[in-house]
Amino acid sequence: MKSRFHVVLAFASALLLVGSAGVAAQERISIATGGTGGVYYPYGGALANLISEHVDDVEATAEVTSASVDNMLLIESGDAELAFVLGDTAFDAVEGNDPFETAVPAMALATLYDNFTHIVTTDDAGINTVADLRDKTVSTGAAGSGTEVIANRVLAAAGLNPDEDIQREQLGAAESAAAIKDGKIDAYFWSGGLPTASVTDLGATPNVSLKLIDHVDLVDEMQGEHGAFYNAATIPAGTYPGQDEELSVIVVPNVLVVSEDFDEALAYNILSAMFEQRDALIAAHPEAENLTLENATQGSPIPYHPGAIRYYEEQGVTPGGSPAASPAA
Is 73 helix (H, G, I), strand (E, B) or coil? Predict the structure, then answer.
């Protein structure tokens, strides 16, 4: 009787092993995005769902982070496999520029869309130019964010010391909008796609007169000091509630980043899924309409990953057009 039990047990174990062999282990990957009030998080959430559904044996999760600087550190540590990152921050990370202590070995999968620099205030704050931020309470973005990097550079270009000439707060997009509503800050910086939900929400708030500050006059100073990945673009009139006129601002490209040792086949398969299922990304946020082969292969300040190059070349496109950056960037 005992021997029969052992035979049955051994047979059952063998069946279990055979069955398990037919099920591939799923690889789990983390996508570093940003705060919930911006564009990275909904875009990244849709990308995670797309990868999980259309890339074999991979399960992806979108993570809330402080955004670009934090995301590059997560790539460096291996705590994230993909990351949404502002181009200027990606460049600084790969070069080992401040605030990065060492060079981060990272590469680009795609240039996604441009981030528009928003300087958000209200009509009654008495702010019409960047110089008017002097002595005001201003959020320069969450600590460790690309917004903070750009805010510091814009303020410096306008002749303001971010540590001395303003009363600095470090809040994310949603937190900054809430602080404006509560009268706790006078203005805030935000670098994001169009439209950004938290800015839309602020503009739709009763008794709040949304105002965005034109600052395109600083783009030449930004380019000369930091690099040609800073450019000028227009926020169309009507993008936000109460915004009746178009606005000229500084933009910088967003890059989807991986570590340089990221699996080549997986990089290829992720891009293939992104372009084949592009409509799912657009449904999550309209900035995904900018995901085209032409846009994806231009403007990255860091080199493209070999898996990305193979995918694009098979589509008849060669990645290139990386903007020059100054040595001091």
Answer: helix
Decide if pLDDT at 324 tops 60: no
Number of helices and strands (H, E) in the chain?
A: 12, 10
pLDDT band at 19 (very low <50, low <70, confident <90, very high): very low
CA distances from 236 to 116, 211, 249, 286, 300 (A): 11, 14, 11, 14, 24
Looking only at the bridges linking them, the beta strands covering 231-235 and 210-212 are unpaired
Q: Which CATH superfamily is domain 27-111+255-314 in?
A: Periplasmic binding protein-like II (3.40.190.10)
Average pLDDT of the residues in 262-270: 98
Backbone angles phi, psi at 159, to 5 degrees: 85, 20
Split at pLDDT 50, 70, 90, the class of 18 is very low
Task: Of 241, 255, 322, 271, give the one whose Cα is nearest residue 115.
Answer: 255
pTM of the model: 0.84
Q: How far apart are CA 8 and CA 313, in angstroms?
A: 55
* DSSP string over 4-44: HHHHHHHHHHHHHHHHHHTSPPPEEEEEE---TTSSHHHHH
Please report, for the chain, the start and end positions of each structural domain, with discontinuous segments joined by +. Answer: 27-111+255-314, 115-252
Query: Is 115-252 a domain of CATH 3.40.190.10?
Result: yes
Q: Which residues contact 153 (CB under 8 A, 6 or more apart)?
A: 222, 225, 226
CA-to-CA separations, 310 to 51, 106, 201, in angstroms, rounded: 19, 17, 41
**pLDDT cut 90: percent of the chain above it:** 84
What mean pLDDT is reported for the chain?
Answer: 90
